[in-house]
Design brief:
Radius of gyration: 18 Å
Number of helices: 11
Order of helices and strands: EEEHEHEHEHEHEHEHHHEHH
Strand content: 15-25%
Helix content: 25-40%
Strand order of the largest sheet: 3-4-5-6-7-8-9-10
Bound molecules: NADPH dihydro-nicotinamide-adenine-dinucleotide phosphate
């Protein structure tokens, strides 16, 4: 069994550095996919209300027979449910669909700066944390300006952001380091697109005898980032976790970092309005 290292969040909770993302997996296929991931050794699962597959995730968790304390489950508040009372209600719905008593990490999915309700939404997450219904709370797609405005008593444990070799996110990573926020990369493989075919990455794959996806995941891990690659393909689910028996040297890490071109595969958090 592969032993996935943990990172320690700012409240002492430990989170596996590699998790399994289930975006775009239909609910009916999610149970089988998450079961494959759990069998491969993943213990952290990343879902969201808007993915509409929390019940599929929950079924796989229940059927696995794994002790709850060995699992790390993240879900996210839907954009349409921002606001104090609506966030509390949405959390109840999510936890019901997951079939859990608590989640390990609950995130505000997007800041939606034009809606401007993320500050009161954060207060709802603080309440869930105070009530022991979540082990950690965090945000996703927050820019430094949004993080600065959050206020409250709790610093987010995690900011889950788009991050891959074509989008290095230096500014946010520096902000996170200064404020004890863990950086978690979504679309760590840039959705399996262009970067995996980049000549520099395929050359490194050849050099290390690994796949381009494994090279990219190693780059993330050696920069202390949490990753949640998604695959619906069993062999890739396993491949994406088989990244703890080699490491990239400093020159190759730098080479990967130099591929940055500010290229997003998802929306810009400063302008995305959740629609
Ligand atoms: P990823 O970067 O994880 O890429 C997924 C794509 O890459 C799929 O098409 C998959 O194909 C392919 N792929 C996976 N592994 C390999 C491999 N080893 N070799 C070649 N291709 C591969 O993109 P996602 O956008 O899914 O991001 C990962 C997770 O991040 C999501 O599932 C979700 O949990 C989270 N996320 C969060 C967001 C947020 O706003 N907070 C936004 C987007 C994602 P196939 O499935 O066919 O194998």
């Amino acid at each position: 069994m592969i032993n996935v290292p943990d990172v320690t969040l700012n409240n002492g909770v430990k989170m596996p550095q590699v998790g399994y993302g289930v975006f775009q997996i239909p609910d009916g296929e999610t149970t089988a996919a998450v079961t494959t991931a759990l069998e491969a050794g993943y213990r952290s699962i990343d879902t969201a209300a808007v993915y509409r597959n929390e019940s599929g995730v929950g079924r796989a968790l229940a059927r696995s027979g794994l002790p709850r304390e060995e699992l790390f489950v993240t879900t996210k508040l839907a954009n349409s449910e921002q606001g104090y009372e609506s966030a509390l209600r949405a959390f109840d719905t999510s936890i019901g669909l997951l079939g859990l008593d608590y989640v390990d990490l609950y995130l505000i999915h997007w800041p939606l700066p034009r809606l401007d309700r993320y500050v009161e939404t954060w207060q709802a997450l603080e309440k869930l944390y105070a009530d022991g219904r979540v082990r950690a709370i965090g945000v996703s797609n927050f820019q430094p300006s949004h993080l600065e405005r959050l206020g409250g008593d709790i610093v987010p444990a995690v900011n889950q952001i788009e991050l891959h070799p074509y989008l290095r996110q230096d500014g946010l990573r520096r902000y996170h380091a200064d404020h004890d926020i863990v950086t978690e990369a979504w679309s760590p493989l840039a959705r399996g697109g262009e970067p995996l075919a980049d000549a520099a990455i395929t050359a490194l794959a050849e050099k290390y005898g690994r796949t381009p996806a494994q090279i990219v995941l190693r780059w993330h891990l050696q920069r202390d980032t949490v990753v949640i690659p998604k695959s619906a393909t069993p062999s890739r689910i396993r491949e994406n976790l088989s990244v703890f028996d080699f490491s990239l040297d400093d020159a190759d890490l730098a080479l990967l970092s130099n591929l940055d071109r500010g290229h997003r595969v998802g929306p810009d958090p400063d302008t995305f309005d959740g629609a």
